[in-house]
């Protein structure tokens, strides 16, 4: 009873505090308010799980997850290296890199572009994760097959975005390049690639989550005895859900950090774009 | 219509590449079979063998087409071997999850547009929620929900919902905020109540945004249902076909399930664009 009441009281207090912060436009509210919301969710979760005696097999309290995070760091780290650095990142770089190169290659043929955009858009909407069992069959159990799944997943979103981006510079700008007697390559490097940057980064950002998903899901179809997907599926089988939630936490932090790094790079490289300028 | 020819060219190129890879990938197995039978293969024999293996590394497109034809048209729809049967199971879970996702998305969007606290506290978490690889943890959620005696289809729907509510929230928030100050002031001069301003201005104005996000959402929703079925495979579904195919090395079956899922996704996106066209024309918003 104490736990339930306590968490409800905390919830009410947090809501009042957030209302106060927003009403009075306190400095730093943009940071404090969402953090407070997150903490409240954790507290209510902890209180409800303890108060209602929910079996830890169904839903472990967050404190258990925290303990698992701290005490099993070496296992989590080993899984992270296997899944993220070996599988996801390799695939991400190969997939995004080849997509950009191919987009530049077909850039000279409007015919191919007109055909590729709709087809690419269609393929980007398909459940490509389904290729995972096939890739595992082709490339074996180790991280190579995971990288291959990631390549297949990020390729088309990236290709479509880059092709669209390369068309983003307008006629006036291209005509200006022509009056400078700029060669195809000069206008590509100095005008059209920079103009495509916001689109390319959009693709890169979408691909961060796709890469992580692809690498983890591919591990369900066979993997060596490490990796986040492997750990999640085996620990579910052993009913130690605190470890599963710890892996999920790592994946969430990793996903957000990966996305954040790409977004930060975007901010540095496309500072000129209207969406990146400071709001006044 | 002038883009028909380029599209066909690209599709034809994809098929050509597919055939080429089928030959390259299946050739070693064809050669090793011939070696054990003490035969030598000419190039054309090798090519025709790679097109007709039982469990090829990469089945040729026509093998997949034959398999799809066999498992849809020639099988009874209620048979467990029929792709239509499995597709229907997946479609139900997708539709349920999509409906949940639309509902949750619209409710959240309205709350975010009308309450500054919601906007500031929930919006960052909604964005962060999508960087969590939910597909990867779907099996666990499905198992936990199943342990809580929730119906299977609901468990699958939850995963679909999680993937599809995000585009709806983002699109609806943009759409509900799309009427500019002029229009909102106009409503004020009519002395419209807030609820009238919502039903007569904001909600209609958000329709084009809603449809754009529905198209993204329905594809995401299908992916969610397929992945959820990987861990709830006892009841069938396209995901279960994928898993069974991967256990028994039935590559043709995997590819036909994949293509069936792709067709399903295409049909649903197509259906939504058709509804979109009719609705927007009725509302006088069609370009």
TrEMBL record, chain A:
Q: Which InterPro entries match?
A: MetI-like, MetI-like_sf
Q: Key word Transport present in the record?
A: yes
Coiled coil located at which positions?
none
Query: Subcellular location, in the record's words?
Result: Cell membrane
Q: Which UniProt keywords apply?
A: Cell membrane, Membrane, Transmembrane, Transmembrane helix, Transport
Ranges of residues in domain ABC transmembrane type-1: 102-269
* Keyword Cell membrane set for record: yes
| Protein's name according to its UniProt entry | Aliphatic sulfonates transport permease protein SsuC
Classification from the root reads: Bacteria, Pseudomonadati, Pseudomonadota, Alphaproteobacteria, Rhodobacterales
Automatic annotation (TrEMBL), chain B:
Query: What InterPro entries does this protein map onto?
Result: MetI-like, MetI-like_sf
Q: Which GO terms describe its biological process?
A: transmembrane transport
TM segment ranges:
89-113, 125-147, 153-173, 209-232, 252-275
Name the Pfam families on file. BPD_transp_1
| Compartment(s) of residence | Cell membrane
Question: What keywords were assigned to this record?
Answer: Cell membrane, Membrane, Transmembrane, Transmembrane helix, Transport
Q: Name one GO cellular component term.
A: plasma membrane
Identify the PROSITE patterns for this entry.
ABC_TM1
> Chief location of this protein?
membrane
Query: How would you describe this protein's topology in the membrane?
Result: Multi-pass membrane protein
- Residue span, ABC transmembrane type-1 domain: 87-276
Family, similarity comment: Belongs to the binding-protein-dependent transport system permease family.
PANTHER family per record: ABC TRANSPORTER PERMEASE PROTEIN MJ0413-RELATED, ALKANE SULFONATE ABC TRANSPORTER-RELATED, MEMBRANE SUBUNIT
What's the name of the protein?
Aliphatic sulfonates transport permease protein SsuC
Which species is this UniProt entry from? Pelagimonas varians
């Amino acid at each position: 009873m104490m736990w339930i009441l306590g968490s409800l009281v905390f919830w009410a207090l947090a809501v009042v505090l957030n209302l106060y912060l927003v009403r009075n436009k306190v400095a730093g509210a943009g940071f404090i308010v969402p953090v407070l919301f997150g903490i409240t969710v954790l507290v209510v979760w902890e209180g409800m799980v303890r108060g209602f005696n929910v079996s830890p097999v169904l839903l472990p309290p967050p404190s258990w997850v925290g303990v698992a995070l701290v005490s099993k760091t070496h296992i989590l780290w080993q899984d992270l290296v296997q899944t993220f650095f070996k599988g996801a990142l390799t695939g991400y770089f190969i997939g995004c890199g080849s997509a950009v190169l191919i987009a530049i290659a077909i850039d000279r043929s409007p015919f191919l572009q007109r055909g590729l955009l709709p087809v690419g858009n269609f393929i980007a909407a398909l459940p490509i994760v389904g290729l995972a069992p096939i890739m595992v069959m082709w490339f074996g159990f180790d991280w190579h097959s995971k990288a291959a799944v990631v390549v297949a997943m990020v390729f088309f979103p990236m290709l479509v975005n880059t092709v669209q981006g390369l068309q983003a510079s307008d006629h006036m700008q291209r005509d200006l390049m022509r009056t400078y007697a700029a060669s195809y390559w000069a206008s590509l490097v100095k005008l059209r690639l920079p103009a495509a940057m916001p689109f390319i980064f959009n693709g890169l950002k979408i691909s961060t989550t796709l890469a992580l998903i692809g690498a983890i899901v591919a591990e369900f179809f066979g993997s060596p005895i490490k990796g986040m997907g492997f750990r999640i599926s085996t620990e579910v089988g052993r009913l130690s859900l605190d470890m599963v939630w710890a892996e999920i936490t790592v994946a969430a932090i990793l996903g957000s950090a990966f996305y954040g790094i790409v977004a930060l790079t975007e901010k540095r490289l496309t500072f000129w774009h209207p969406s990146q300028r400071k709001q006044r | 219509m002038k883009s028909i020819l380029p599209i066909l060219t690209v599709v034809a190129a994809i098929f050509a590449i597919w055939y080429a890879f089928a030959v390259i990938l299946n050739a070693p197995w064809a050669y090793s079979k011939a070696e054990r039978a003490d035969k030598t293969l000419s190039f054309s024999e090798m090519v025709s063998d790679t097109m007709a293996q039982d469990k090829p590394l990469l089945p040729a497109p026509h093998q997949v087409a034959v398999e799809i034809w066999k498992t849809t048209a020639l099988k009874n729809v209620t048979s467990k071997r029929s792709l239509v049967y499995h597709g229907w199971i997946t479609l139900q879970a997708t539709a349920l999850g999509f409906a949940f996702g639309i509902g949750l998305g619209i409710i959240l969007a309205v709350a975010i547009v009308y309450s500054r606290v919601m906007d500031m506290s929930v919006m960052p978490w909604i964005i962060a929620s999508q960087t969590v690889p939910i597909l990867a943890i779907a099996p666990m959620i499905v198992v936990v929900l199943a342990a809580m005696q929730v119906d299977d289809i609901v468990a699958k729907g939850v995963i679909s919902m999680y993937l599809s509510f995000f585009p709806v929230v983002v699109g609806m928030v943009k759409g509900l905020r799309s009427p500019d100050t002029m229009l909102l002031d106009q409503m004020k001069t009519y002395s419209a109540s807030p609820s009238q301003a919502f039903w007569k201005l904001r909600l209609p104005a958000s329709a084009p945004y809603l449809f754009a996000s529905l198209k993204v959402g329905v594809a995401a929703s299908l992916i969610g249902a397929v992945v959820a079925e990987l861990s709830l495979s006892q009841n069938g579904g396209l995901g279960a076909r994928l898993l069974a195919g991967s256990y028994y090395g039935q590559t043709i079956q995997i590819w036909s399930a994949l293509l069936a899922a792709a067709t399903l996704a295409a049909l649903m996106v197509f259906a939504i664009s058709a509804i979109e066209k009719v609705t927007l024309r009725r509302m006088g918003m069609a370009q």
